[in-house]
Hints:
The structure is a single chain. The chain contains 7 helices and 6 strands, in the order E-H-H-E-H-E-H-H-E-H-H-E-E. The radius of gyration is 17 Å and the shape is globular. The model has no long low-confidence stretch (mean pLDDT 94). Helix 2 packs across helix 3 and helix 5 packs across helix 6. Helix content is 39%, strand content 15%. With 202 residues, it is of the alpha/beta class. A 6-stranded mixed beta sheet has the order 3-2-4-1-5-6, sandwiched between helices. It has helices at 14-17, 31-48, 62-75, 101-112, 130-143, 156-166, 171-175; strands at residues 4-9, 55-58, 83-84, 149-154, 183-188, 191-196.
Amino acid sequence: MEQTIYLIRHGETVLNTQGRYQGELDSPLTDDGIEQVKNISRLLKLVIDEPNEWEIISSPLGRAIQSTEIICKVFGYDFNKVTTDSRLTEVSVGSWAGLTTQEIESSWQELLENTDNYNWYFNSPDGESYDSVVKRVSEWLGSIREKKKVIAVSHGLTGRIIRGVYRNLEKDQALRLEVSQNTFFKLTNNNIERFCYEYDEF
């Protein structure tokens, strides 16, 4: 039996609505974010049929844990069975965490030169590098290789990089992958399939 991974991003947070970059900061889900996770959970429950046959692994950051708790409630899944893995945490942007793009531009303009909307995160003077994130998500994918049914709850940028590593994409390709809070992805047999509750009947 081949491995299947369902990759989910946490729901919308308060800092998301403020246009502030979270990195490893914590911010609670908004009411819309809670509904997003409920809708994703209902669709995923239909897709996988038997939730208790799956292993759920979450980032330890609060917004991911809050999302995982909602998933478990919708599934009827024992939250105590959930494991956390720090390799699923969001990319650290160091001292840029909690700031808006404008605030970052005003203080670190020189660090943003020759960057674009997809790669500027990695120019933070004390944040993570792209290669270090590739290394940790590659290690995570390797560590679950023998697990056949995995549901992973992670973050926007880290989720892009997980999919990029899974498909052996170049950096520029990986960082341009879709990221949304109403969508989840199925990774199996080196293919990635997209599910969006706004377009799927459930």
